[in-house]
Amino acid sequence: MFRHHLQHLDVARSPRRGAVAAVSAIVVAMATLGGLASSASAAPGVPAAPTFIAPAQGATVTTGTPMFVGMGQPGAAIMLTYSVATSCTPGQPCPAVPVVQLCSVQVQDSGLWSCTSMSITLPVGTVTVQAFQSTAPDVSSPSTSLTLTVTNSGGVAPTVPSAPVTTAPSVPVTTAPSAPDTAAPSAPVFTAPAPGSTVTTTMPRYAGTGEPGASVRVYTQTSPACAPGKMCSMLIRQLDLCSATVQRNGTWSCTSTQALSTGSAVVFAIQTDAAQNSSAPATDMFTVATRQAYCPVTNPFGPGWRRAPGC
């Protein structure tokens, strides 16, 4: 019947609330059972094993300092300890499990006892708590182990000696060398001068798109002039006009440093990536035309000059 009154007792929420709840439950139990003390007394000699009432077996507590309540022999001394389970490595000796004393208290005349640890905080995880009842020096009886799960305790688990670990020798990792970049980039694209357009300067600005980070070289081809009656050389030479680096947005531009001849012009552009792979040439064809700023005209009042469209 005493257990029935305490089966819903929650002593895990906080030390303060747990203490109030536990004391209230003890008062109810004492009023209900009255003569429970005499029945809890043990026979002379070795005392009977104490028992836990709260927290319940397998309970989860949300504080590292819960209140423990139980039954024992009036006047006997109760000492609580806890330990943390350790894992054993197959083929290795299991390490010793350290046992830590939590608190101690004397059983009341009613046979009830309660104990709260104020200096030791239970660690987060699964812990095993055990009560020992003693009526004389070196004479004690252990209780059945109480297993609890502790959350948000702020406690630190006791140091557990670890079993020796044998580490296999490391195997060197061989990384295959990466294949060299031999792929040529695509040919750049001209956007200015626009193909088929006419420019009025012999040193125009060139612009286009390409592979970001690549270098673009703009050039034209020339051949030597042939004097009448002389043998002409068939050697065609390249004349570099300008160069640029393709920006992150894929655009490039540069202004010619060499003058083109008037008339039809053909220029080329190639781009070279970081691995020194060069693309096929791109071609741009346009017309170079120059004009006079003023054109002579016939003036009825005498010779003169005036600006005329197309001059």
Number of domains: 2
Class derived from helix and strand content: mainly beta
CATH homology superfamily of the largest domain: SoxY domain
Strand content: 35-45%
Provide the CATH top-level class of the largest domain: Mainly Beta
Second rung of CATH, namely the architecture of the largest domain? Sandwich
Count of helical stretches? 3
Examine the coordinates and then state which fold CATH places here, giving the name of the CATH topology of the largest domain: Immunoglobulin-like
Described by strand count, sense and barrel closure, the largest sheet is: 6 strands, mixed
Basic shape: rod-shaped
What is the typical, i.e. mean, pLDDT? 77
Task: Kindly state the number of beta strands.
Answer: 19
Helix content: under 10%
Distance between the termini: 120 Å
Radius of gyration: 49 Å
Low-confidence stretches: 1-42
How would you spell out the order of helices and strands?
HHHEEEEEEEEEEEEEEEEEEE
